[in-house]
């Protein structure tokens, strides 16, 4: 594969949640990093203190990566899904992603954390059927089967920045 590591590993902490580790090749991480460094047009959600890219109808630069992630998703979960879209997220100090459920038309949602931080960064806590937190670790993340509409959230970010890429599969 062009973007993904050959030696991705993971575990299944809940029947509908898969953690994935060592997801992207270093070249992919470097490429994704360029979107944080250059003058791209980002959306700022002031309520969440979160920035996202791409915005609205911008061309999706992540299509090929998303197609590879859909293949990994199928290998990991056994479900045949198609890539819908991806977004980069930059969560700023003061951000918090409140309790929510993903949209019902998403079959699987995936998030991969990107950059290392010198500060403790909250990951994603799933609240159903039991509390389980996917820790913030660079180049690690999860596939969440959305059929059970698990409530989840990301805690308050005090210092540092939380960077990630989220993928929707249908």
Strand order of the largest sheet: 1-2-10-7-12-5-4-3
| Helix content class | 10-25%
Give the mean pLDDT: 94
- The first-level CATH class is given as Mainly Beta
What's the total count of β strands? 12
Q: How do the SSEs run, as a string of H and E? A: EEHEEHEEEEEEEE
Reported for the largest beta sheet, the result is: 8 strands, antiparallel
Low-confidence stretches: none
In the CATH hierarchy, what is the architecture at level 2? Sandwich
- Going by helix content, strand content and strand pairing, the class is alpha+beta
**Termini, distance in Å?**
21 Å
Descriptive report:
By secondary structure, the protein is an alpha+beta fold. The protein has one domain: Jelly Rolls, CATH 2.60.120.620. Helix content is 16%, strand content 35%. The chain is built from two helices and twelve strands. The protein has an eight-stranded antiparallel beta sheet with strand order 1-2-10-7-12-5-4-3. It has a four-stranded antiparallel beta sheet with strand order 6-11-8-9, with no helix packed on it. The longest helix is centred in the middle third of the chain and has 15 residues. The mean pLDDT is 94.
